[in-house]
Amino acid sequence: MSQPSAQLAGWSAFLDRFGRVLAPVLVGAALLGVWQYLVSVVQVDDVLLPSPARIWEEWEANTGPIREAAGITGTNALAGLAFGSVLGVVLAGIAAAARWFEGMLASVVAALAVVPIVALAPVLNSMFGADSEFGRRAVAAIAAFVPVYINTVRGLRQTTPLHRDLMSTYASTRWQTFRTLTLPSAAPYVLTGVRVASSLAVISALVAEYFGGPRGGLGAFISTSAATSRYALAWAYVGAAIVLGLAAYVATVLLERLVQWRLPAGGS
After folding, report:
1. Other CB atoms within 10 A of residue 260 CB
2. 3-state SS of the chain: helix, strand, coil percent to 5?
3. What is the distance between the alpha carbons of residues 85 and 194, in angstroms, rounded to a whole number?
4. What is the CB neighbour count within 10 angstroms for residue 180?
5. Vertex 224, ends 204 and 66: CA angle to 5°?
6. Residue 114 region by backbone torsions, left for phi larger than 0, else alpha for psi between -120 and 50, else beta
7. What 3-state DSSP class applies to 216?
8. Are 10 and 63 found together in one domain?
9. Co-location of 79 and 156 in the same domain
């Protein structure tokens, strides 16, 4: 490749990466501009839509409570994500090795995939008591379990009989086959499941906080603020929930890239 072509390819790659970062920022700024226009020019009632400036004022005035509530929700979501992911990977490993187990578990997974959080959360909160966070974490774990399980089962079955026979001809042990063949093939699917589950865990923990349990968490404060007509403060808590969800998503994306980089053959 000639030097001008290499430079052109380098600039193209740089602009592509820069555009992927800049585009969401521009879209967000445009939405904020439309939002402010609706409030300032169209005169949308503050009850229906508080201005971004008013919401920011509430955020600054309540930074401590917002941070504490986000910590509670984040802890519940993280605990649910960790437990649900581990359980999903373990059961998927068994299901991939035994078809009868997968068939037995299929109806349970299908039921968990469609169970409404708004119906499940108050039941679990009542079961485990008003002073326990376990109900909220259980809801987050159930939400995280389904995508991790489904993706892991699919990933573990990506290796073909031809690949396994080839490893056998090299007299590879089961561990060597798993490390060099099964794991690199399954890892992208597992990590995709965890990435999807991270957002679901945050949403589920947030929704579960509406329906009892200990005082605290973003969901509880959103509900309380709206009930007392402090709508700008409620939107400030909503903004914190959005930041928490984005942080969970970005963390799992970084984890995905790190794990794939460390896998055999460069993680590809």
Report:
1. 15
2. 85, 0, 15
3. 7
4. 16
5. 70
6. alpha
7. coil
8. no
9. yes
Q: Running DSSP on this structure, what letter comes out for residue 131?
A: T
DSSP 38-50: HHHTS---TTT--
What total number of domains does the chain contain? 2
The rounded distance, in Å, linking the Cα atoms of 116 and 214 is: 21
Alpha-carbon gap, residue 135 to 149, rounded angstroms: 21
Task: Give the CA-trace dihedral at 205, 211, 212, 215, to 10 degrees.
Answer: 60
From first to last of its 268 residues, what are the pLDDT tens digits of the chain? 555 555 555 556 655 666 666 777 788 788 888 877 777 777 777 667 788 888 899 999 999 999 999 999 999 999 999 999 999 999 998 888 788 888 888 888 988 888 888 888 888 878 887 778 888 899 999 999 999 999 999 888 877 665 666 666 666 666 666 666 677 778 889 999 999 999 999 999 998 888 876 778 898 899 888 888 888 999 999 999 999 999 999 999 888 888 877 765 544 4
Range of the domain at 255: 50-267
Report the CATH number at residue 249. Answer: 1.10.3720.10
The string of DSSP letters for 59-112 reads HHHTHHHHHHHHHHHHHHHHHHHHHHHHHHHHHHHHHHH-HHHHHHHHHHHHHH
Query: Which residues have C-beta within 8 Å of that of residue 72, sequence separation ≥ 6?
Result: 133, 216, 217, 218
User: 36 and 67 in one domain?
Assistant: no
pTM: 0.80
Long-range contacts from 247-251, C-beta under 8 angstroms, 24+ separation: 247/74, 248/74, 248/77, 248/78, 248/81, 248/198, 248/199, 248/201, 248/202, 249/195, 249/198, 249/199, 251/198
Contacts (Cβ under 8 Å, ≥6 apart) of 200 = 140, 143, 144, 147
